[in-house]
Amino acid sequence: DLLQWPHISKCRSPEMETFSCYWTDGNFYNLTAPRTIQLLYMKSIDEDWKDCPDYITSGENSCYFNSSYTSIWVSYCVQLASKNEVFDEKCFNVEEIVLPDPPVHINWTLLNTSHTGLHADIQVRWDPPPTADVRKGWITLEYELQYKEVNETKWKELKPRVSTMVPLYSLKTGRDYEIRLRSRQRTSEKFGEFSEILYVSFSESDSECVHCTEEIGFPWFLVVTFGACGLAVTVILVVLSKQPRLKMLIFPPVPVPKIKGIDPDLLKKGKLDEVNSILASHGDYKTKLYNDDLWVEFIELDIEDPDEKNRISDTDRLLSDDHLKSHSCLGAKDDDSGRASCCEPDIPETDFSVSDTCDAISDSDQFRKATEKEEDLLCLDRKDDDESLASLANTDTQHQPVNTQSENIQLWPPFADSIDSPRPSVHTHISNQNSLTNADFYAQVSDITPAGRVVLSPGQKSKVGRAQREGCREQNFTMDNTYFCEADVKKCIAVTSHEEDEPHIQEQSCNEDAYFTTESLTTTGVNLGASTAETPSAEMPVPDYTSIHIVHSPQGLVLNATALPVPDKEFNMSCGYVSTDQLNKIMP
Amino acid sequence: MSAKGASLKGLLLGILLVSNMLLTKEGVTSLPICPNGSINCQVSLEELFDRAVKLSHYIHSLSSDMFNEFDERYAQGRGFIAKAVNGCHTSSLTTPEDKEQAQQIHHEDLLNLVLGVLRSWNDPLIHLASEVQRIKEAPETILWKAVEIEEQNKRLLEGMEKIVGRLNFGENGNEIYSQWEGLPSLQLADEDSRLFAFYNLLHCLRRDSHKIDNYLKLLKCRLIHDNNC
């Protein structure tokens, strides 16, 4: 057998005036000397342990402290000891160990019965335990009632309450009930012992209905069965019925996503290019997506798409208001789109692939391809011919190199047709640029491809002399396939050109070279200045572009004949890019 | 955005309703029978005692819960037996310690004692509320209970002063008060000693709140219901 030490099982006060402590013997002393267990106690203010005042009143193995020994709100320690051996010790305050006696005089009365006589309400009453002095308010009690049918196992509990009566509703008159109560001090959590069980049974007189039958429970089983059957039958009928309307009513078709004109298969196969193009034909597509970042807009469109269907004429396309940026030169606008950073001539190609604002990775490849194929908008055309001087003829200027311009004029049929005014001189000026980075962004449109793209041509490359080319070589055109601003090239060209034999013509031709950016065509009515006979110098590149004054979009252009020597601040950034290859072709 | 605003409003309303419900459940709503500023209206003494008893009961249940939570959380395994023989700072006040003594004492003296104990606890409660926040990982329930007890204690003190005023007796010359010196112990560096100090303080608080609750119930039954509660 396990050795069990004597220990204090509990200490309890029923009414907060006395208390008792109980202990167990354990099997320790069965074998040895008679029991000499003692209970010693000590109040907090005492200094030594005292013996229990009453071993008898509370029964065996107990110690009873009457009211004279009991002080509330004072801490006690009790000790179970034998001679010199301490078995157990406990410390407490008396108000913490209050477990009241159960209530007494429990009875019940009938409140009323239901019409059917099958149910009844009763009122249960009781008195507080006699030991607890509730009347003077020394102790406040709470009561809990529990009841159940006689043959049930689980008790139903009511909420603890202070009042000494409680109604019980809707008891079945045909059954017998058991009721029991217990109490606790209101400020504590532990209940005292249960009272004796009260039996409730209803006599025949209690239930008025004599002929009432035994109540049947609601036939849930039947309801469920029939309901399920009915539902199944209905569903089968609906499904089998040929009536599409009914079927649609109950099983409506789930709509699949559809975009007009797009074959879902396209999306599946991942041909985004085609999807893009289809979407592009819906005018709003681009503007919504790329409203703020025109730079991105330029880049992300597939320039090379040969399948693009053009139902709009070239003119309209160029002059129309919507942003068909795919055909525009990467002309710099005077807004803060990220293009500016890409206009740096020093930017190596790799930067394009990493820069968010300037390029998409996939598109940088396209750019490269484009330049090589000479279909690139961005670059000056490499046609080294007299067409570089092409511009719209001037009627009012002193420069009349009509011959040289004739070819170019032919290249501009759309514009010629649409221009209202007599062919004004299209002069531009290159803004006062001394560095490679400052350049204007005009390029001469030398051709318009059937696809609707504008091909830009450089200026005066035919007139560039060798010496100057070499001089130009000294410039920083060492990187392959990089983009340079046109102005730099122009400047180079201009520098070389003005040392030619015919500077006059050069100037003229410079001046007469004209180019537009589609963008400037479509967006700005920029007051561009055309330069007159500016003396070309090394520092001041010859302005060989004219500019558009007003765009009577979409039908007309008015070109500015006046020359502004002041560089236009708006056009600080270069727009055109020349690849090194092209540049090298310019300068052999 | 409007839907969001509406849902926020609904949530706020819900919180208000629930909190109101909880407060009424605790029995600490002080629905004023006399609105503020009215001169002729007088709350009955019975009503005053009712409120005082409700408050004292609430305070005791709060401090009891707080002690139990603290005991569970920090005292287990540390051997903080409820020896608490260190005594409480209010032990110096001579208060009745059993029913006979409580019945014999005059209600004025008893009321003054109640006031004295309440005043003596004003200071410790303030510090308890602030110091308990410095306990490492103190549960939120303990924190807000400390604050709540401190608040309710003030309200109970005000109520008791009103009752005393209503009963038309002033306090004696020597005002009952016990100074609390325990603040340094709550700020000890050693965590064990500090927690033991808290344990003691909470134990004393539980005891004293029970004492006050009992005295007030006694007084209520004696004065209002004529010993026939």
From TrEMBL, chain A:
Transmembrane segments: 218-240
Keywords (A to Z) from UniProt: Cell membrane, Disulfide bond, Endocytosis, Glycoprotein, Membrane, Phosphoprotein, Receptor, Secreted, Signal, Transmembrane, Transmembrane helix
Main location: membrane
CDD domains: FN3
UniProt-listed SUPFAM superfamilies: Fibronectin type III
Cellular location(s): Cell membrane; Secreted
Name of the protein described by the UniProt record: Growth hormone receptor
UniProt gene name: Ghr
Automatic annotation (TrEMBL), chain B:
Family matches, as CDD domains: prolactin_like
Keyword Disulfide bond (UniProt): yes
InterPro entries hit by this protein: 4_helix_cytokine-like_core, Somatotropin/Prolactin, Somatotropin_CS
Keyword Protein transport: no
SUPFAM superfamilies to which the protein is assigned, alphabetical: 4-helical cytokines (SSF47266)
Compartments where located: Secreted
One term of GO molecular function: hormone activity
Any single GO BP term: positive regulation of cell population proliferation
GO cellular component: extracellular space
PANTHER family found in the cross-reference section: PROLACTIN, SOMATOTROPIN,PROLACTIN
Protein name: PRL protein
Gene this chain is encoded by: Prl_0
